[in-house]
Write a structure and sequence with these properties.
- The N and C termini lie far apart (81 Å).
- The longest helix has 70 residues.
- The protein has 432 residues and is an alpha+beta fold.
- Helix 5 runs parallel beside helix 10, helix 6 packs antiparallel against helix 10 and helix 10 packs antiparallel against helix 11.
- It contains eleven helices and eleven strands.
- 20% of the residues are buried.
- Among the domains are: 79 residues, Lipocalin, CATH 2.40.128; 66 residues, no CATH class.
- This is Magnesium transporter.
Length: 432
Amino acid sequence: MGKNQFSIRRRKKGMPPLPTPPVDNGEPQNSISLPVGTVKASKKKVGGARLWMRFDRWGQSELNEWDKNSIIKRAGIPTRDLRILGPIFSHSSSILAREKAMVVNLEFIRAIITAEEVLLLDPLRQEVLPFVDQLRQQLPHKSLLKVNGTSTEQDDNEGHFPNAGHWLPVPEAVEGLQAELPFEFQVLEIALEVVCTFLDSSVADLERDAYPVLDELAMNVSTKNLEQVRSLKSNLTRLLARVQKVRDEIEHLLDDNEDMAQLYLTRKWIQNQQPETLLGTIVSNSPVPAAPNLRRLNSARSRSGSLVSNHFNYYDVEDLEMLLEAYFMQLEGTRNKILSVREYIDDTEDYVNIQLDNQRNELIQLQLTLTIASFAVAVETLIAGWFGMNIPCTLYHTEGLFWPFVLCMTIGCIMLFLVILGYARWKKLLGS
């Protein structure tokens, strides 16, 4: 299909006004500072209230302090999902699908995404600020529907039907929704991009610090270098666990088409609202009698239901699957980088262990050599001890015999040392 076109029905008397996107006045949208009046602080702070930032599909944001009951009532999620977003599960990763919302807990990004807005918890944290910037920069560009640079406005009677302040597309215009990702997937894509970028930069920092430390350890095995490698391995293990959690959560979604189908919030919203809106409009605008009206209602119900079901197959999850596969491959690459660093650490440890084993073998050889020398000296000491006894001997009265006898004993001990040393080398107990 070509360019996306949504026909907009002219507002009739008594109908709610058509919502229009915010006017771009040329001011930069990537600033963290909020406009005056967007922070809604209650006069009396409610107990247990936390800071949330709300983004609509046009990229406008506001800060609010909401308690658990307000969030549950606004997003329609169970209480246990707010516990998942609490500080206890701060380093866990989960993407949960609910009836009207998606609960996202990826690293430092904890948000509740609906078909119309996103509620971000603790938006002023340093790690979350890049995500806030990306939402402000990308949401207006992805959400504004323009044709030839201008917003689409038509005066015909087909197109959108108002329902409780919202404008819903008729089945003929549903096909245009498939040309780009729904709002919830736009936010999910931004969250995955920010998280993957953060993890990839962390791995890059780890690689930059790891290789010099490991090379230094390979050249000089010292207590300081060993302590640095131990700290490096601890950081690597924690980072690998964080990457593995996000990767496993995406893999879990990719393995279950039903879970991915539950994440299509816009699709479910249109499926629930469109038949009732179409039928209500036909009843209000039809001047024919009741009996023909009933026949038209039945035919309209069957036609609209068939069109919606044709355009929105429940298990048609190709868009989300391609989105998740892209970031799954990126996380797989990040994980492989960490594993390569760990392999380099293991190789360095093996090399250091070989060095230590070689030094240990050299010490054993030196100890064996000294033991052989000690044995040869002990033989000479034994002979000297024999002659030191107070037993009469004719050799004591022989003149000029002392130094030749000592020389002969010394030469004999040296020969004994060389014989034993040669035997040890012949048996390969000592190195050459």
